[in-house]
Amino acid sequence: MIEILAPKEFKTIPWKNGQGETIELAINEGGSLDNFDWRLSIATVCHDGLFSDFSGYQRNLVLIEGQGISLAHDSQRIDVLENCLDIASFDGGCKTVGKLTSDTIKDFNVITKIDKVEPQVNSYVGSKQVQVELYNNDFCFAYSLTDEMVVQVLNAHVNVVPVGHLAKLSINKKESQAKPLAVTFTGKNMIIVQLKTIENGR
Question: I need a labelling partner for 67 at 20 to 30 A (CA). Which of 140, 145, 154, 173 fits?
Fold first, then answer.
């Protein structure tokens, strides 16, 4: 139902283009850098440059530290992330060039295969209480930048998630149910990610 992944469980892997490193927080079972359905990671960007090619994938990038970055996609559309927890969503197959506002930044990445997973990525600045619905075969993740989070399932089971840890929620086959499961997150400066499998037909 719920797993709390600690930083010691995260993996450091090279960027696909070899220009840096990523801390991989979670990836679908059996997934690898070259072939996965979904992946969550945190990257440090130290200099301007071209982003890795992830053709066939959707990218959601959240600014979590630093003064900001602008992302130019195919020399056309530009996303400017100025404030902490600003989000950019774009096609991983675009030629995306990042330009730092002043200095190094960190970003939280959600990369999903377009024909497999429908992502919903939301960030919440300040103290918030957020409720989401979890369906069979889907996943929900939550990450807090500054304070511990409280995760409550069905108004009963309560879990405390320390800062820098990742909460992962899912419904396994034995727990499968007709109605979606209500999950409440209480915390400060949170990122909540819902990954819906397209095969569900919703």
Answer: 140
User: How confident is the chain (202 residues) per 10-residue block, as mean pLDDT?
Assistant: 93 82 94 92 93 95 96 93 97 96 95 96 96 92 96 85 96 70 94 88 44
**7-113 and 117-200 share one fold:** yes
Res 202: pLDDT: 44
Q: b or e along 104-125 (b: 16 or more beta carbons within 10 Å of the residue's beta carbon)?
A: ebbbbbbbbbbebbebebbbbe
Q: C-alpha 50: how far from its chain's center? A: 20
Confidence (pTM)? 0.92
| Cα 105 to Cα 42: distance, rounded to the nearest angstrom | 10
The predicted structure's pLDDT at residue 199: 73
Which residues touch 58 (CB under 8 Å, ≥6 apart)?
A: 89, 90, 91, 92, 111, 112, 113, 114, 119
Q: Which CATH class is domain 117-200?
A: mainly beta
Q: How far is CA 19 from CA 44, 91, 194, in A?
A: 11, 20, 29
DSSP string, 134-192: E-TT-EEEEEESSS-EEEEETTTEEEEE-TT-EEEEE--GGG--SSPEEEEEEEEEEEE
- DSSP SS3 for 200: helix
State which fold the 7-113 domain adopts.
Jelly Rolls (2.60.120)
Token pair, residue 54, equals 């992830």
Q: What is the DSSP letter of 46?
A: -
Which pLDDT score is estimated for 180? 87
